[in-house]
Amino acid sequence: PICQPGAHSSSFPIGINKFNTTANRQAYELYAEMIGKYPEMKGSVVQFEAYPMEGVRRVREGETAALQTSHAPSSPRSSLLSDLAPLYGHQFRALIHAGDEPGRNPTTYVNYAYGDEKMEEVYGYEEWRIQRLRALKREWDPCGRMGWFHGIR
Predict the structure, then answer these.
(1) Beta-carbon contacts of residue 21 (< 8 Å; ≥ 6 apart)
(2) What is the pLDDT of residues 19-47, one digit of tens each?
(3) Which residues pair with 63 in a beta bridge?
(4) Fewest CB within 10 A of the end CB: N or C in the chain?
(5) 88 with 30: CB under 8 angstroms?
(6) Cα separation, 31 vs 42, whole angstroms
(7) 68-127 per-position pLDDT tens digit
(8) How far apart are CA 39 and CA 37, in angstroms?
(9) How far is it, in rounded angstroms, from Cα 112 to Cα 72?
(10) In 3-state terms, what secondary structure has residue 47?
(11) What angle separates helix 21-37 from helix 84-98, to the nearest 10 degrees?
(12) DSSP code at position 16
């Protein structure tokens, strides 16, 4: 399992609006290549998650600062070859994103983020959304004591 003591886990998520069988096949082929080249990576996982979004979409766009996105992470994991995880993880992410709607900006669910994503990928590309989150951060955490992975800057 991913959550075991001493295990290393890296996630490389990408939000998509549609599954693309060609992109998924390319990701599978990359996975097979990775395992063939580095058998120690056989504990890696490429995971697709899909959630119903009807309730999320019922909230009007201007009423929340949270980014409304779908999610399909690719999550290679290896304790032995942790420097290979980013190499392949970024490739998985790029393949799946390329199969999504043309011109769609990449999005990432913050809880699975790898850490190198742009703030807009996690919180949304609309300037008003980032400004609202920053205002909420100033209001609720004026001393900057609450921080976390991909915190508001």
Answers:
(1) none
(2) 889 998 999 999 999 989 988 887 777 77
(3) none
(4) N
(5) yes
(6) 9
(7) 444 333 334 445 567 788 888 889 889 988 998 889 998 888 877 888 888 898 888 999
(8) 6
(9) 10
(10) coil
(11) 160
(12) -
Strand, coil or helix: what is 12? strand
Phi, psi of 30 (to 5 degrees): -65, -40
- Rounded-to-integer distance, Cα 84 and Cα 62, Å: 40
* Phi, psi (rounded to 5 degrees) for 12: -130, 70
Sign (positive/negative) of CA torsion 147, 129, 61, 97?
negative
Q: pTM for the complete prediction?
A: 0.67
Taking residue 109's Cβ as centre, other Cβ atoms within 10 Å add up to 20
75 pairs with which residues across the strands? 45
Residue 95 backbone dihedrals phi, psi, to 5 degrees: -60, -50
